[in-house]
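Narrative progress, year one. The postdoctoral researcher (J.K.) led the effort to move from monomer predictions toward full complexes, under supervision of the PI. The following entry was the first complex the group processed end to end, covering 439 residues in total.
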Amino acid sequence: MIYGALEVEFVSLIEGTGFSLPIATITERVDVNIEVTPAARSAVKSAIGEQIETHVLIISAKAGGCSGYLYDMVVVERPEEEGFQTINIDGVTILIHDNDSALLNGLKLDFKDSLMGGGFHMDNPNADRACGCGQSFG
Amino acid sequence: MIPPLADIVNIPTGITLVSGKDARTHLNRMLTVDVSSDSLLTRKESFICDLNGRITTYQLHVDLDEQILLFHNDSMSEILRKTLTRGIPWNEEIEISSGDGAVQRILIYGKQPEKILAGLGINQAQLQSGHWTEFLDTMISVIKIEDEFSIYEMIIPSRDYSEITDLLHVNGAGIGEVHSAIALLSIAGMIDYSIDVSGHIPFNLGLQRLVDLKKGCYPGQEIHARMESRDGIKKSTSTFKTNMQMRLGKSKSTNNDQLEIISSQRFGDSWINLLIHPKEISLSSEILVNTPEGEIVLKSV
């Protein structure tokens, strides 16, 4: 392994026994319903463009941010992984992972077209609090 | 008191392993410090805080690239692992495992631990506090070098523990005591990870260096930023000596100042205490504390 300009041996500190198997996470799965406003539908379609047959929008929640969770939205080629729930809106496929379903169920996705504070906005009924920037909730 | 050469002591600790190619990214979203630029063998300390900016966990990092070992108070193990296993994104590879008992953390402390390290072929001048250096299958780093003493830290796989500690003893190391080692850390102005600091604001512990307000959002960041910008840091932590053990928890001085003892460790004939106190208290003077046992004098160290 190369470390800086030095070549060092593989770290054997954690080789061998003593470590547990990965700790399993139990997450609640719910059937997801989300609302996408006309402005957001238009913006999502615009973002996906001509790849609408092969690509999907994935909305997810990950740990972090000021309020505990961060929203994430990506347009990607339909993933092979299992565990997603599919929502079709005007020909656009939106995926939400089962692990995020309880956090994102009932989400309202909106889009504001303005120079300041513009872009996608989330209104999440599961959130007790949200960050001022709108990207984090908890 | 301070060993003339050095003593070694095993510090009981909880160990959590965060592994996977996105381990560092996942941690970085939650920690109060920026680990995004860390690399193999980085040594770092960090907090995870709640939304009110109070410490949930306090940990030491041993960065092994796609495997990051965290050493922490063992009473924090459950909450740390629960925190780290939630919010793992669908497209990231992260696994959380318990390493309790798999690896040991020892402190080597005294007036001349460098002589013992030299006997092992370790040049202390090459050790850095922000970096781990490999020695056989162990990791070693320097915690503090003072005029009167030095403290080094070693991480040893349990399978090699006897062999390595025998090697240290052969080179002159004595058998130390946990309370003496933690007391010496307190004298050096450090708070060991084995001390429970949960529920406290990092600033009140004097650990501003573990709060990075430029790294972006993390749980508690808004509170920390507001405290820092509005001069809201009203408390500090200092080391005081007493002639008896102090009860941990809140108490009041005879001047009615709110105080809190977070550690009280025997060191020779006296006790070394970590005390959270109002910033404006003069540290040059003694503090008289009301306790059920009567008034106790705390002398600044």
